[in-house]
Amino acid sequence: MTNVRLISWNVNGIRAIHRKGFLDWFNEEKADVVCLQETKAQVDQLPKKLINIPDYTSYFNSAERKGYSGVATYTSIEPKEVFSGMGIEKFDVEGRLQRLDFDGFTLLNIYYPNGGMNEDRLKYKLDFYDAFLDYTNDLRDNGHNLVICGDLNTAHKEIDLARPKDNVDTSGFLPVEREWVTKFLENGYIDTFRMINGDIKDQYTWWSYRTKARTRNVGWRLDYFFVNEEFKDNVKASYIKSDVMGSDHCPIALEIEI
Q1: Looking at residue 71, what is its pLDDT?
Q2: Rounded to 10 degrees, what is the CA torsion of 187, 193, 198, 203?
């Protein structure tokens, strides 16, 4: 058996996080796989040291629109295949998904849409959610064990944000968004953080910059590691690294055994 440690982090701009000591953190962390969301950069805009980190291979899926969205994965384990997108143009142009097939599991690194701007973006988010569920179910039907990580942009239950009653009409905690997360789990997926840690309170991964919410821990748990039910016994740890600064999100980690 091999132990694999994965980290997922919405960095809110890879160039911005680079200026805040990202590479020092990365080299100290020594994770096997690091998944980033909201990179906000094309590869040709990045310094070479962010592309070529020793002992890692990097893969980028950038949005067509510059300075927007995007995901990246760094891995010290050689994948068998790497794919970008779900094959649906209206979603794939925003650079929101990477799939890496490894021996023993398939990793999905996703930056799910934010629905807060207007009704059209909320519909886009919900359409993405539905398409994503079809996509993951198809992978499972074809024998893939899935590790799914990223910024879901929804807090599932009241325990997953500090002020639930104040946010019932806010995208990220709307009933329709939360219902989809419930449906996703009912399709046979596991929220690994809750599986390992139970109903522990005050555990968040995002805090608003505008209200200096982090110092008061007025946050939301928007970032998740999911696995399919058949793979849950391979999960050994799932935790939040809330002491890591540099973004309005903090990293989350998953340890699995293959």
Answers
A1: 98
A2: -130
* Nearest residue to 149 via CA among 199, 96, 95, 104: 96
Distance, CA of 6 to CA of 253 (rounded, Å)? 6
Q: What is the 3-state secondary structure (H, E, C) of 163-200?
A: CHHHHCCCCCCCHHHHHHHHHHHHCCEEEHHHHHHCCC
Q: Please tell me which residue in 32, 151, 160, 223 is annotated as part of the active site.
A: 151
Please state whether the predicted TM-score (pTM) of the whole model is above 0.90: yes
Listed residue (200, 181, 187, 111) closest to 149, CA to CA: 111
Q: Are strands 105-111 and 71-75 parallel, antiparallel or unpaired?
A: unpaired
103 catalytic residue (yes or no): no
Domains of the chain: residue spans and CATH: 3-257 (3.60.10.10)
pLDDT, the chain, mean: 97
Q: In whole angstroms, give the CA distance from residue 31 to residue 198.
A: 24
